[in-house]
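Methods: example folding runs. The two proteins below were folded one after another, and each record is reproduced exactly as written to the output file, sequence line first and structure-token line second.
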Amino acid sequence: MKIFYESREVAEIAPGKDGAATLTYNPDWQGTQGAFPVSTRMPLEVARHGAGEVLPWVANLLPESQQLEMVARATGASQTDPLALLASIGRDTAGAMSFSERGFTRMTTREVPDETALERIIQELPQKPFLVGEDGVSMSLAGVQSKIGVHVGEEGMISIPVEGAPSTWILKPDSGSLPGGVYNESLCLRLAHLVGLAAPEVRVGRAGARRYLLVKRYDRRRQGESWRRLHQEDMCQALGRLPSAKYERNETGQRGPTVRDIVAVMRSLDPLRGVLSIFDYVIFNAIACNTDAHAKNYSVMVTASGASLAPIYDVMCAKLWPDITSKQAMSVATKWEGDYFKGRHWQREAALCGLNSTAALRRVEMLCKTTMKHLPQAVEEVIAMDPDAEHWVREVEKYIAERATFLVNGLAEQDPEATTWARAHFDAVG
């Protein structure tokens, strides 16, 4: 299977015995000015990479759970054969790569004529992820929840990219299992932006009885009449972990990525800006009560000159739904419940990550207070998008305010021996 960056051939993946696969870079791509690797784990300087790097990278470009099952059923490919799946739906993926067929920069779309048509698409998504099987449509987005890549025109009209065109927004429909989720996520991402974190633009819309969230793709950029793809990879890809290991606690039998692990990735890629920024993301996810901030929900942008932290995304306040776990996806100094994070936990986690413990406390305090300052504005902005959001965002506002207040008050409980604790913990778990 060939891999393309727009019209250029980048590499080829050749399947091998027992599910093994090798990726070989095209020599022309290696010699192209501005060329970048498909992954930070697969540098251009090395022509061929084995299955240990290739398969986790590929698997993390596909949907998960029931979404993956439905795609497999529609394409006739096995759920355990990510190469075959991407060959069918991988022309538009997270990042810049297209699989099996070239991607293009021209915006070719199929119009969604009205709300009724959009509502019908939304209704069909659970049984027909990414409109799989429809003529000219080939896209894949990671994750468990239903979503679809779309293009939003200058007048707000939504259309479906076809024939290798890149999607420019991600449409996330409402969900019966997560009522108010559209408003919840829009509030959290608007708040992240107002707090000063890099966060994508969001819009709330409705199609008949359905509500949806539009999230602008940060890995797409308009250039004149063209739409260029920007490359990225998530932290599971950067760490060489399969999607099944995205949580620190998982069912693989091995510990999944930790805060220390993702900080270490940024230290290797962007030590001046990325390390502190990703720790800010961890803090903000705790403030927002986002218990699903696993490794796939942190990403890096990959360019010819190196890598940098991608904007924060997929942030929702889990306290809105009582049946959702209250445990964070990644622990903070072995503590899982955000309602119990104290100053000592932030100090110890900072020490584990090789960061200054005192500075970490200041960042927690600053982000909590900045959150409290901008929270009312974020609430009003979402209500302005859709007045029906008010009930839901007022609930989220309450939970975030409570968490931010608690975290600030808890900073007084400190550990002057945080470095010693971290050293002992590190020696114990490796």
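Second run, written to the same file directly after the first:
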Amino acid sequence: MTENIAIQVDHLSKMYKLYDKPTDRFKEAMGIKKKKYYKEHYALRDVSMDVKQGECVGIIGTNGSGKSTILKIITGTLSPTSGTVTVNGRISALLELGAGFNMEYTGIENIYLNGTMMGFSREEIDQRLEGILQFADIGDFVHQPVKTYSSGMFVRLAFAVAINIDPEILIVDEALSVGDVFFQAKCYHKFEEFKRMGKTILFVSHDLGSVAKYCDRVILLNQGVKTAEGNPKEIIDIYKQILVGKNGEVPEQQTAEEEKPKEIPDILKQDFEGSWKSHIKLNPDLLDYGEKYAEIIDFCLRDESGDITTSIVKNTYFQICMKVRFHRMIQDPIFAFTIKDLQGTEVTGTNTMYENISCGPVNEGEEKTVVFTQKMNLQGRSYLLSLGCVGFSDNRFTVYHRLYDCCDINVISDKNTVGFYDMDSKVQIQ
């Protein structure tokens, strides 16, 4: 390992044993039969990479591609099945929420706990304490047990500790997604400061705009295998092709004149295991209210291929689907969705009344499936989706059921313009 290499990963693999039944695990442990009771699942397969000192390297890939697994192995919280990892420098890692924190301890106690685990004396932590508290900005909550924290306060404290213990290598895995936009801005400013100081950053994120802006080099993982490595723009383009075309099949390009909505497979003719919403990450703090004369029992987002996902590639068509069950007879219900930014500003949305679509009367016990199909013209960033079913009952406006901020929408783009909406401008210079 040369002196200018901060992290060296050599032929790294991680295999998990998947058992059909708990008894199979017991049988194997007891050696009852010389038989393999498990299926092999490789989260990583023969991955090699180098991260130079002072580099900001991004790792991207679809869910389940092995991004978090490789970070856990690098930080030592997970052991590889084969291969080696060599680290040259002191690592500070911000992985999933809760890593390295004792939920029963106060924020202050966890600061000293983490500092001690990093090898600092109490006096050294004392010197850094003011900077940690100032960056976290959670007030008197720092004296309360962290189990009482919101996810936002938790990540503020965790990130403040991670970046204020003077690491030589900073590893971040999607943790900033739970912070508000102002905190995210402060964190990215710290990234830039770290880069100017010549520190090494290994960065995993679905926010391709941030990856393109801050990373010197990007590594693409797909199904546990390193698929590509190079400059951010080229690798992001390959990633978009994987997302849109699935398995690397790139869809045919259309001219502006002939462009038309892609026909997405009928959701009612597709088999999905469990409910639609079980395939996406839901907001645990969603606001659910209404008279419940009608109830939104299921919902999801779908990409051009018909797959359920919360990541939509910019300039592609997607669907917002919801299934509504009626608990009383309703005359012409109105179905709606709204997309907001992380600050709560309504960015766009529509409903069946605006679209001049009438449902007509719906009887008690009936279910309706509503599908909104549209092109994603929003800028690459995260948004929040809200759904609703409303109408007029006894000549007054009535909210039957609303789900506020039920899930996020991650718009994937390597090219953004100003504001929320891209007008797809064409530029000529003569």
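Comment on the second run: The longest strand covers residues 396-412.
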